[in-house]
Amino acid sequence: MDKVALVTGGNRGIGHAVVKRLSKEFNGVVLFTARDANNGSKVCGELNKELNTENIQFHPLDVTSKESIGKLRDHVQDNFGGLDILVNNAGVLLRGDMSYAEKAETTIRTNYFGVLEMCNSFFPLLRPHARVVNVSSQLGSLRSVSPLLQKQFASATLTIAEITALMEKYVRDSRDGKISEMGWPDKSQYAPAYSVSKIGVTALSMAQARQFKEDAREGIIINSICPGWVRTDMGGPSAHRSPDEGADTIVYCALLPKGTTSPNGEFVYSREIQPWTAGK
Fold first, then answer.
1. pLDDT of residue 277
2. Model pTM greater than 0.90?
């Protein structure tokens, strides 16, 4: 069956730019997702026409719904028999008058648990030498949490279950009004819930990479990346980078050639491995 790359949140912004690049540089089908089926279908038609191709396909997806993820997984399994590239790009940065606790719960559910459920569902479909790219952010710096939490998240033996427990604890602490007391970022920091969610995504990616080193399938690589501050609906018009520039490191990691050993299990920005430890 055809090779296939799957990009979540590919209807606009960075994801849209990733789809365009992969359509040109990846020898296979590029399947992208969006929550709005009508908009996604429209964008898919426009992209195929603009790029004079037929290799871009669309499927609706809500990353907060296990049922929706399951339908997409079945579609990929039935039509392609496996998966070669997974780009977990979909995410939210909430603004407005929501309470801290509401923002924390919604953001973690989408940005962390959405990625976790996508990985749990699609990792069994990954073919040997597959590439996984989890879009994170430098806003998810360990400097935004207490030294105790920094030590926990930076542990080289941290498990996925432990990361998940920390994400659940953050939501509970935000609900109980214990943010500062428990070492989480408060409202004085920019987008604190987004920052914590991306700490979770980076830690998750590193733990997953450790697991893949013991996987029977050869050469599967996973990295987390920061696209930089990008001019999108999320990043705003004053951001330094265009969507194409933001997509570059994602596509770079998605197309790492067979035999690559590094980067793997790393946090990557501008195609370079970045230290993800406290104080750096």
1. 66
2. yes
